[in-house]
Amino acid sequence: MNLDQLRGFAEVARTGHFTRAARRLNLAQPSLSRQIATLENELGVELFHRARGNVTLTAAGEHLLPLARRMLADAEKARSEMAELAGLQRGRVRLGATPTLCTSLVVEVLADLRERYPGIDIEILERGSRSLIEALLEGALDLALIVTSVSSGAARAVLESEPVLSERLVVVSSAQRADTFAGQSAVTLAALARLPQIAFPESYDLRSAVDAALASQELTPVVAVEGAEMDAALRFVERGLGVAVVPAMIAIDRPQLRVTPLAERSLTRTVSIARRTDMATSHAGTALRTLIREVADRFTSPGYPTVSLVSRVAG
């Protein structure tokens, strides 16, 4: 039994047709038929019911299929990891991040990754921190950038969280409307509550933090638009429909926005890299973690647009 036979078997099972499977595998149909016949002889069982125009799995074939897929996946993983050892020429990593980080930190990280390791493929999952932690626990992610603590006992038992930077929350308003925060170096929560706001979905960790801060001072915000996702919310602000509270990094390279810090300096968030400690990190994953730290250093270096609003956190 070899990988070519298993690959042929899995493809016939998937397509239900020898000719289509052979075409997808770039084989002649007789060659594929011989592979399957040899596999059946070696195992001593029939794997397919063959009827005119219809190929279905036997009970033995149904039992073999998940095993074959697992062996093929293990072979691909071994091949990928060996290629990584040869210089990270190939690889794949699954990264989760919150929506606010996808439009700031992650953009810079992926640009650096593509330039340095063009052979590494990356899959992005954009969710709130709690959903990302669940995805890590399920094994659906290799790394996640989260902005909340790992609170549950089950998660703490298998997850490691490394803080990389802390950023203040700021108020963004339209740069075209000079009267909004004219002459103000900071905005109090009381002043914020009097302005029409673009409110994010309640699933956003950012929304929860701002709502809690306002409620602690018995303030009720004026909501102009409810439930806008990040990109849409920033566009609404640029057009003067309201203001929004966002992390400092979001405002980088957005000349249509005016950025004013919140007076309450305690309103910050810490960005952390989370991963499972019971799963080995691939070479691609290790390279990505290193790049995240490098970009975090760049965001907090002197002269960067967010200096004084973003600070490095030692892991």
Written overview of the protein:
The model has no long low-confidence stretch (mean pLDDT 86). The longest helix has 27 residues, at 59-85. The chain is built from 12 helices and 12 strands. The protein is α/β, with parallel strands linked by helices. Strands 3, 4, 5, 6, 9, 10, 11 and 12 form an 8-stranded mixed β-sheet that branches.
- Fourth CATH level, the homologous superfamily of the largest domain: Periplasmic binding protein-like II
Radius of gyration: 26 Å
Number of helices: 12
- The outline comes out as elongated
In the CATH scheme, what's the topology name of the largest domain? D-Maltodextrin-Binding Protein, domain 2
Biggest pleated sheet: 8 strands, mixed
List the uncertain runs: none
Portion of residues in helices? Answer: 40-55%
Tell me the span between the first and last alpha carbons. Answer: 48 Å
CATH architecture of the largest domain: 3-Layer(aba) Sandwich
Say how many strands there are: 12
Mean pLDDT: 86
H/E element order: HHHEEHEHHEHEHEHEHEHEEEHE
Briefly note the structural class of the backbone: alpha/beta
